[in-house]
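Thread: 5'-deoxyadenosine complex, take 2
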Amino acid sequence: MIVKDIINKLYKENNANKEELLFVLNNLNNEDKEYLIEKANEIRIDNYGNKVYMRGLIEFTNYCSKNCLYCGIRAENKKAERYRLTEEQILECVDLGDKLGYKTYVLQGGEDFYFTDEKMVSIIKKIKKKYPQNVVTLSIGERSFNSYKKMFEAGAERFLLRHETASKELYNKLHPNSSFKNRIQCLKNLKKIGYQVGAGFMVGIPEQTNENLVEDLLFLKEFKPHMCGIGPFIPHKDTPLKNEKGGTLEKTIIMLALVRLLLPEVLLPATTALGSIDSNGREKGIKAGANVVMPNLSPINVRNKYSLYDGKLSIGDEAAECKICIESRIKKAGFTVDICRGDNVSWLKEHKNI
Ligand code: 5AD
Ligand code: SF4
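Output below.
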């Protein structure tokens, strides 16, 4: 087998089998890597041109009942300074977002059941009443089919729920008292209800092998999420994984490019974690096929409290109010910023007959 041939196959057919993907991950040299990035970029250009979509991220609660070993806001981290935004504060963030031109708001939080279905429905309805054209995206973890349905009916249209890793064994090691099966079921339920769904995984989590990463790629190819969040694992000082090594920029870029080749129409963010490990991380991600950025719209005084990992960016280019600096960096990298809804193109074809 030759790496370049497999990349060509991925480019032409948007597919490769387990052995081929593993061969790429195990044998990719610098020249192959450049070629992979080039091809991934071409596929993105074919599907989305050189547009990069912007979403405003509102981190509305850092309470979480879960204990993911890697995460700085896990329930057992007693050092995390907890906060919840009020409904009014969330609406203020949305107002600011709309003023700045953001048409999509991602309401992200830990698994915090203070925010009951009723509270979420009320927030979603208020946002949609005021801004009917704008999109509400939820990222609030695992809930029942009926909860997801109520929130969809209230007007939420997209949902981000990373699968985190497609290896059941690794999933179980990282997520105490959680069920891999339930997580995957949640993703399926979301799709069935009609959400545009975001899956995703971390690169470089302890004990993760190239075989595991291939499992992620094959899972994504089969599940076909509309969006996919990929970022490097970054250790957090108050978690059980504090002394572990983090994921690298290089490996994350390779995974982004492979996902773009496997899922040409996926919306792929250049994540905050990528921007946090390298000052040009986001641009490098965009050049390898990423086409979404999610600047932070949360109130400034809570931003450092949403501390998933050490060194998480929340100011400067990561801040929604700094739209001009974000735009100018994206332009400098050769891309244009698009502030519209930014739907997944295959979802649009299916749902709006376009
Ligand atoms: N490093 C990188 N990403 C992390 N996340 C949580 N903790 C970390 C960490 N230490 C990611 C998870 C989660 C998303 C919101 O943030 O993938 O789904
Ligand atoms: Fe909670 Fe999400 Fe952190 Fe897990 S990754 S502890 S579910 S906020």
